[in-house]
Amino acid sequence: MPARSLILLAASLCVGGLAVLVYYQDSDLVLWREYLNHPFALGVLACLLMAACAVGLRQLWLRNVMVIVAGLGMTAALFGGLVALAFTSVEESGFIDGPAPYRIRLQHSTAGLGPDTVTWLSVRKDEGLLSREWQLGCFNSDDPNDAFDSVTWLGPSAVEIRVTDGRTFPVALDPTSGRPQTTATLNC
User: Fold this and answer.
1) How far apart are CA 92 and CA 184, in angstroms?
2) Which residues, including other chains, have CB under 8 Å from residue 137's CB and lie 6 or more apart?
3) Tens digit of pLDDT for each residue in 94-126?
4) Is residue 125 within 8 Å of 28, Cβ to Cβ?
5) Which keywords describe this protein according to UniProt (predicted)?
6) CA trace torsion 153, 120, 29, 88 (10° rounding)
7) Of 25 and 162, which is predicted with more confidence?
8) Where exactly are the structural domains of the chain?
9) Are 156 and 149 in contact (CB under 8 A)?
10) Nearest CA among 98, 107, 92 for reference residue 125
11) How many other CB atoms are found less than 10 A from the CB of residue 62?
């Protein structure tokens, strides 16, 4: 096997392994979540590298097998990515600043096929490349009384989430790490 094919095969296996790791392993690091959390794109790249590896092979049967496997894998990754994109579209609603270095991130998406809206809240601790983000709460508006209304900082290590009927959900944050000690969810 030519050296170029060996290098491309090794790169394909590394990128494929990274795709599997990203798909199954969740991380608190914002850098990981926002820039590396694309398992289907990494899967397509791994298949393209495998096809490029196959081009340099001398054995026709091995070249054909690798191209077919790469094509099937790329088709599966593209289809899976399109399905995931169709059902997991999230709209950014911005950030609510808290005591430095904390911010609360709001995200909205539709729930199922109905007009319901799901609101996700997460708390972010800004530390440059080592910024971390943790889930704070999830609220589904299928019952209008359970819809998210507001969030208020009660201090450097406490947050209060309010829904439309006036109920409140206090969430304490770990004073050293900023990780929520509990989460608040309604119908999620």
Assistant:
1) 19
2) 120, 121, 148, 161, 169, 171, 183, 184, 185
3) 888 888 888 888 888 876 656 778 888 888 888
4) no
5) Membrane, Transmembrane, Transmembrane helix
6) -170
7) 162
8) 3-87, 91-186
9) no
10) 98
11) 13
Which residue is listed with tokens 């914002």?
30
**Maximal C-alpha separation, the chain:** 71
Residues 6+ apart with CB under 8 A from 170: 154, 158, 159, 160, 161
CA 143 – CA 130 distance, rounded (Å): 38
Three-state DSSP class for residue 79:
helix
Distance of alpha carbon 136 from alpha carbon 51, whole angstroms: 43
Residue 95 and residue 126 in contact, taking contact as beta carbons nearer than 8 Å: no
Beta bridge partners of 173: 180
The neighbouring-strand residues paired with 122 are 105, 135
Of the candidates 28, 182, 156, which has an alpha carbon nearest to the alpha carbon of residue 99? 156
| β-sheet bridge partners, residue 160 | 152, 170
Which residues is 168 bridged to in the sheet? Answer: 162
What pLDDT was estimated at residue 49?
92
Our measurement of the distance from residue 153's CA atom to the centroid of its chain's CA atoms, rounded to an integer in Å, reads: 25
Say if strands 132-140 and 184-186 run parallel, antiparallel, or are unpaired.
parallel
User: Which positions ≥6 away from 63 have C-beta within 8 Å?
Assistant: 54, 55, 57
Matching residue, tokens 């999620």:
188
